[in-house]
Amino acid sequence: MIVVTGGAGFIGSSVICELNKRKQRDIIVVDEEKNRSRKNLEGLIFSSYIDKDEFIKNIKGFDISSIIHLGAISDTTCQDKDLIIKNNFEYTKVLATLALEKNIRFIYASSAATYGDGSNGFLDNEEDLKTLKPLNLYGYSKHLFDLWALENGLLERIAGLKYFNVYGRNEYHKGAMRSKVLKGYYEIKENGKIFLFKSYRKEYKDGEQKRDFIYINDAVSMTLFFLENPKINGIFNIATGKARSWNSLALALFMALGKEPDIEYIDMPGDIREKYQYFTEGPISKIRKAGYNKKLTSLEDGIMDYVNTLIHK
Asked: 268-307: per-residue pLDDT in tens?
């Protein structure tokens, strides 16, 4: 039996969808019953849906082979430290400990947010973890668990995945945390233009700030690589290894919609200017060396495919 925490969410439901395609039906979906819509689970096959708190109380009663732990408070603007630490750090510690006690495969979501402003690089090396300085509470909570796992020698037995900017189906519910691809799609549909932040650093022109955008299909494929290969452990980037600009994203959206580009550069809110990441890029040589050899989707092809699903949904 496979457990997917955060299973009703963006990446979690997409993982379950792919597991179903691989004929896997014996799945427990773990999420917050009181706060989560089940819309993302429509049409998917799984054994049961359990609230996250009930699951961790009764985990020893289940015959589990693997846990893919994707559940977390992922709002990078949340300032409730106690809530985030409880959900993202303490819960993960307990879950990992219980999993290892029962020899259950444990794969968990870390985050590219742990890299902070990138001044210490984006290499997914365990020995570099202590040099990283996350810029927000969400990144800090994820970083805390990475460090705890490192200091307790667990990274030789579990896989921690640092997801970069994932976009694709089933992210509608994420509000302000939705990808710019989805936000931009609706901006263009409603206003005929897309809005991007101005740059406040001379070395970057407006819209030329860059991110490592990875399509959901690739993020899921990389995630399940670690399910297929239980002896491969440690910290790994889930990325493309190629940073692209916001302008490139916008142009790909206009092309997918068959519209002439119209980009308006707007002021960046003052409360995020000092913590804004101007460049992220996740090297993927480590996962390649580990044996992951599938071709990744280009930003243009990913956006075209995503837009087609939005148009026909």
From this structure: 998 888 888 899 999 999 999 999 999 999 999 999 999 9
Q: Which of 213, 209, 215 is CA-nearest to residue 196?
A: 209
Which pLDDT band, with edges at 50, 70 and 90, does 80 fall under?
confident
Half-sphere exposure in the Cβ direction for 95 (13 Å, CA): 31
Helices (H) and strands (E) in the chain, counts: 11, 13
What's 192's DSSP letter?
Answer: S
Q: Identify whether the C-beta of residue 272 lies closer than 8 Å to the C-beta of residue 79.
A: no
Q: Tokens 């997918």: give the residue.
A: 256
List, by residue number, the catalytic residues: 138, 174
Determine contact, residues 273/200, Cβ cutoff 8 Å. Answer: yes
Q: What is the pTM of this model?
A: 0.95
- Strand 244-245 to 210-211 pairing: antiparallel
Going along the chain, which residue ranges are E strands?
A: 2-5, 27-31, 48-51, 66-69, 105-109, 159-163, 165-167, 194-197, 210-211, 213-215, 234-238, 244-245, 263-266
Confidence band of 36 (pLDDT split at 50, 70, 90): low
Asked if residue 196 has pLDDT above 60, the reply is yes
Q: Is the dihedral of CA 200, 202, 207, 212 positive or negative?
A: negative
Phi, psi dihedrals of residue 44, rounded to the nearest 5°: -95, 155
